[in-house]
Amino acid sequence: MGKAAAAWLMVASAMAATTSSPRDVVQAAVTRVVAVLQNDFEASPLDRPRAEMRRAEIRRIATELFDFDEMARRTLTRHWNSRTPEERAEFVRLFTDLLERSYVARIEQFSGERIVYPAESVDGRYATVRSKIVTRRNAEIAVDYRLLVRDGRWRAYDVLVDGVSFVATFRSAFGRIIQESSYAGLVDKLRRRTVQTTDLERTATARSTTSGPDVK
Predict the structure, then answer these.
(1) Three-class SS of residue 126?
(2) What is the overall mean pLDDT for the chain?
(3) More confident: 137 or 183
(4) Measured between alpha carbons, how far is 119 from 146 in angstroms, rounded to an integer?
(5) Which one of 3.40.50.300, 3.40.50.1240, 3.10.450.710, 2.120.10.10 gives the CATH number of domain 3-214?
């Protein structure tokens, strides 16, 4: 294949990637995650290996949907600029692990609720996809995805659950730790997996209380 043809294929691939709307990207990823969960629910009771395989598949889908580098930069804010490339790489890795665990924990609450996508808005290379989880009691949980175009693809850089932003929550938690301790103290907590996301936990608890037994 000639260089010109190869270059054209690369351009065409990038153009094809951006032809999918932000809503298409989010809906496709969520549909795949729901399929993973439903397949497990229909099988025999989960043993540890099956649960681990399920979570690994959800993490793989999340990695395709989320721009973890962008999310990490936004949570660290001004502290990002003073970090070395090695420190940034380690922080992204640790933050990705934390976010994946938080995202998987919330996704695993799904128990057959209906998910609708009432709207999307696009402003240049940024977009917001609004979705709602409707329980069997018709309670609604708003889940909004904020996306940007990265390397020709729409990638999510934040999720808001009933208005509570993942990025803002982590930014606040990280800021408190750095203020009370240091950046090294934050990294140590991330390594030991002791960072608390109380705002998100309170949201999940409040919703599970008001929505009744439909939300696990």
Answers:
(1) strand
(2) 80
(3) 183
(4) 12
(5) 3.10.450.710
